[in-house]
From TrEMBL:
Gene3D superfamilies: Aspartate Aminotransferase, domain 1, Type I PLP-dependent aspartate aminotransferase-like (Major domain)
Organism, as annotated: Paenibacillus residui
InterPro entries xref list: Aminotrans_V_dom, PyrdxlP-dep_Trfase, PyrdxlP-dep_Trfase_major, PyrdxlP-dep_Trfase_small
Names of the cofactor(s): pyridoxal 5'-phosphate
Aminotransferase class V domain boundaries: 54-363
A GO molecular-function annotation: transaminase activity
Assigned keywords, A-Z: Aminotransferase, Pyridoxal phosphate, Transferase
PANTHER family reported in the protein's UniProt record: CYSTEINE DESULFURASE, CYSTEINE DESULFURASE 1, CHLOROPLASTIC
Name of this protein: Aminotransferase class V-fold PLP-dependent enzyme
Domain of life: Bacteria
């Protein structure tokens, strides 16, 4: 019961650690490491290596499209999620008096680029969460005819709450308001529907099990036609055209957002890891982390802890957050036991992925109990 969906020996370092840190970083799969080495060998093949790079890149887009029920031509590779969000913010045709909607469960990369728009007279509307959740109605209540965009994560980095973005998008499609969905904390562990938003963005190095260096950017061309605020040789149809010193024509598909070469080591890795996740099945991974998460939540509550993440399985994914003023101290204490979690900002977060099992949770709870007692003995408070 609640066994891992993949053997821990397939990852580097899991034989010595309890890895509950996937919301921040995931361990290196040996196949991912081999894929990066394959890229390095390809570099020694000259033009043949470049052809291999193109093949891997195209295949990786096809796999991601399969994972999100989309089309490869609607996916671009950029360097990181912050770049994608900043690009959208700078490329939209904003008018003074327009507004956009954020909420208090959003990661800083989904907040900071929009704050710059205040200089242009754009109103930023902030929806306050209620007990760690933001609902569809909460967002719709502050949406009006001047709302140009809603920015939200599918799963909150802060509380682990999952937003019903599909219900939100059904309502927004009746208006001119666009939806930008950050799936960094969900893609690879729960299902994502690419065309149930206007923009989708995801980092490569978390639940997708790959490395740093890329962001997945999906666009819904049936509803938008965004012209990027910058251009590079990969974003145009003919970089060596006869009029290249006078004019250019952007690519018709998502490639218009790609300036130059992507991080090919990352794409080689992601090409492997996305195929691995698809082979295991996103529905199977979701079922596993939700079952394991329910078991973990019960154990945390038995320790008297305040769990921020919703108990209902359909309202969460792999992240389980606990409110505690000593969150950073707890994470540091568990690190001494080779247990990796994230702590800080008045909480600690435990992340469950396909390689975790019941033994991982039991070991965490076993080590957490005396650690909490020690902190309380030092005068710490459960925030």
């Amino acid at each position: 019961m609640m066994r891992a969906l993949i053997d821990k020996s397939e990852f580097v370092g899991l034989e010595n650690t309890t890895w509950l840190y996937s919301g921040a970083e995931t361990p290196t799969h040996r196949g991912s490491m081999a894929a990066v080495e394959d890229y390095m060998r390809s570099r020694s093949l000259g033009p043949i290596g470049r052809d291999r790079n193109t093949s891997v890149e195209n295949n990786c887009k096809a796999l991601l499209a399969q994972m999100m029920n989309g089309r490869p031509e609607d996916i671009a590779f950029m360097s990181n999620s912050s770049e994608v969000i900043s690009m959208i913010a700078s490329s939209m045709d904003w008018q003074a008096g327009d507004n956009l909607i954020l909420h208090t469960l959003e990661f800083p990369s989904g907040v900071l680029p929009w704050l710059k728009l205040k200089e242009k007279g754009i109103e930023i509307r902030i929806v306050e969460d209620t007990n760690g959740e933001v609902g569809v109605d909460d967002i719709l209540r502050v949406t009006d005819e001047r709302t140009r965009l809603v920015m939200t994560s599918h799963v909150s980095y802060l509380t682990g709450a999952r937003l019903d973005y599909r219900s939100l998008y059904r309502k927004l499609k009746e208006t001119r308001t666009l939806l930008l969905l950050d799936v960094t904390q969900s893609l690879g562990v729960v299902p994502v529907q690419m065309y149930e938003a206007d923009f989708v963005v995801c980092s490569s190095y978390k639940w997708l099990l790959s490395t740093h260096g890329a962001a997945v950017f999906g666009i819904n061309r049936e509803r938008i036609s965004l012209v990027p605020a910058y251009v590079g040789w990969r974003s145009v149809k003919d970089m060596f055209g006869p009029n290249r010193f006078q004019a250019f024509e952007l690519q018709d598909d998502a490639r218009r957002f790609e300036l130059g070469y992507p991080s090919y080591p990352t794409l080689y890795s992601m090409n492997f890891t996305v195929q691995l996740l698809l082979n295991i099945g996103i529905a199977n991974i979701e079922r596993h982390v939700l079952e394991l998460g329910s078991y973990l939540i019960r154990g945390l509550k038995e320790l008297g802890l305040e769990v921020m993440t919703p108990v209902q399985p359909e309202k969460r994914a792999g992240n389980i957050s606990v409110r505690h003023e000593a969150g950073e101290q707890i994470a540091e204490g568990l690190l001494k036991e080779q247990i990796y979690i994230w702590g800080g900002d008045g909480r600690f977060r435990i992340s469950l992925h396909l390689f975790n099992d019941k033994d991982d949770v039991d070991w965490l709870l076993n080590k957490l109990a005396p650690l909490l007692a020690g902190i309380q003995g030092e005068g710490g408070e459960n925030g």
